[in-house]
Design brief:
Number of strands: 9
Largest sheet: 7 strands, antiparallel
Low-confidence stretches: 17-27, 272-281, 283-314
CATH topology: Replication Fork Single-Stranded DNA Binding Protein
CATH architecture: Alpha-Beta Complex
CATH superfamily: Replication Fork Single-Stranded Dna Binding Protein
Number of domains: 1
Number of helices: 9
Helix content: 25-40%
Radius of gyration: 21 Å
């Protein structure tokens, strides 16, 4: 397990390098849905180290790209759907989608489209829920829960770790710190900007220590989407082009690899559970209007526009992009 000094050194290294930017849940409730707490309420977590001792941090960064489609091919009354695919930068490789999208930001007419297809960040942590205001949330048999943290909350966690007044690693079993997530609202949307670390250190209880002894710690990397194979990467590129072109999602063509949440794989497909985990794996909560009874999903740093372009405009944009590529060649 890395020390607090090592974490601070690694964070500083990342900031200097990036300019300051920094698996499925199995159907159980091991992922704690803190976004379901009511406005004005708070919940308290005690983060634990990653089970992977080689991970300097006690979290793993998750990068995904969301591909919107007008509907599903062959379904006349199909509503818009979205397919979530892993971003190759999560594995330290170049992402073919981002390679193309980066150029869009140089043209003001393509900026909104670029944000739409930009990578979305979230962060996977694990630990205990020490204060739980969600009445219908039952603690699972393994009380070590996972937390999918949005960039807004993560920045609070990260900046506090650099505070010299914090002398001990917050995940220390005997002298660690609790983290309080507070839900308020801002501009009609859920806001967690007042979340903070506790002021006093505390030790894990005997029950919590026994749970770690009995269940062990998760390797957080196990809950990242699996790295796409060459075949899956070709499918991702095809879906990206189809999405930008305004074409519907083709389940017969792509369903064995990536598909919208809730859609079954095509008949006769050799698809495994892994392929769906890439679309429905643990998602960070996004901001949703506090008055709307909808589940929050992850709010990326680069906020996508409220609505995408029409199919005709998408085709125009794709034609413009391809024309530029041909001219550049």
């Amino acid at each position: 397990m890395a020390s607090l000094a090592e974490i601070r050194a690694k964070l500083k290294e990342q900031e200097s390098r990036t300019g300051g930017n920094i698996a499925s849940s199995g159907g159980d409730n091991s992922v704690y849905p803190f976004w379901n707490i009511k406005e004005g309420e708070s919940c308290t977590f005690r983060f634990l180290p990653d089970g992977d001792a080689d991970n300097t941090f006690f979290w793993k960064e998750r990068l995904v790209i969301k591909l919107p489609f007008q509907g599903i091919k062959g379904e006349t009354d199909s509503r818009p759907v979205q397919v979530q695919v892993p971003c190759m930068e999560m594995y330290g490789d170049s992402c073919p989608i981002l390679q193309e999208v980066r150029g869009w930001f140089k043209d003001p007419s393509l900026e909104d489209m670029g944000r739409k297809y930009w990578k979305k960040r979230s962060y996977i942590f694990q630990g205990f829920v020490r204060q739980n205001p969600i009445g219908d949330d039952a603690t699972p048999a393994n009380p070590i829960r996972r937390f999918v943290i949005s960039p807004q909350i993560f920045q609070i966690i990260k900046s506090s770790l650099m505070d010299p007044e914090i002398e001990e690693l917050p995940t220390d079993l005997m002298r660690g710190l609790d983290f309080n997530v507070r839900k308020t609202s801002k501009g009609g949307y859920a806001d967690y900007g007042t979340s903070s670390w506790a002021r006093k250190e505390s030790a894990l209880t005997e029950v919590e220590q026994a749970a770690i002894e009995a269940h062990g710690l998760f390797n957080l990397a196990d809950f990242l989407p699996k790295k796409p194979s060459e075949a899956e990467l070709r499918v991702i590129k095809e879906m990206f082009e189809a999405s930008v072109d305004g074409r519907p999602y083709d389940n017969d063509k792509w369903g064995a690899y990536y598909r919208p949440y809730g859609l079954e794989a095509p008949a006769g497909s050799t698809s495994s559970d892994d392929s769906e985990s890439n679309t429905s794996a643990e998602s960070a909560p996004v901001q949703a209007p506090v008055q709307a009874p909808v589940q929050e999903t992850a709010q990326p740093v680069e906020t996508a526009p409220a609505s995408g372009p029409t199919s005709d405009k998408a085709q125009d944009i794709l034609a413009m992009i391809r024309a530029r590529q041909q001219n550049a060649g």
